[in-house]
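Batch manifest, entry 17 of 40.
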Amino acid sequence: MTALRHHESREAVVPSSDVGSDCALCGAFANATAAPRSPFAPGAVLFRQGDPVRLVYRVLSGAVISYRLLSDGRRQVTGFYLPGDFLGLEAGLEHTTTAEALSRVDALAMERTELAGRAVTDVGLARALWQVTVRAFRRSEDHALILARQGATERVAAFLLDFAERMGRPEIIDLPMTRQDIADHVGLTIHTVSRTLSQLQAQGLVEARSSRHVRLLQRHRLEGLCA
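Output type: structure tokens
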């Protein structure tokens, strides 16, 4: 993993299949204002690790990466946020990660104190916040399980399947992140990620048309690798 990243032009990200879920929470954002500095240019930072938590964001378009800088200078990518996702819903007073735009990002923002205050009297909103929090926790657990138990092939396959699922299970997925971003997320080196993609392609499981476009040829076999 690396603490440095070179900003490259990113592809636009279409809305995922999750857009429209958590209606009560979406409704709370219906009258929210555009996030400060929205639209964010590729490489722009929404918030930094250690900043006081003030705003909750809803991504409307584009993609956001979150990462944590470790004490030894390495970077650990904790997640990717797509259209319809919320970020900034943290329990502590300070952000534990940095959030950075991978592509041009449009986002709405709301004061966390306002959102929390409305949830006190709005049962539906409180339930939606709980559901979003539970899903985030489960995703974190799944990620930890991948890092702890699976080899390189399983980690890369699991990442591709998860991203495709979030995008509505298309056959061809356009990745807004670099291979270095993927490597820092699944706990591998960029060379291992590239070699693994080449191996999956040689086995006829995927077709890596470029570093950003991957076609899933045999999804069931990829799923079998992660079982």
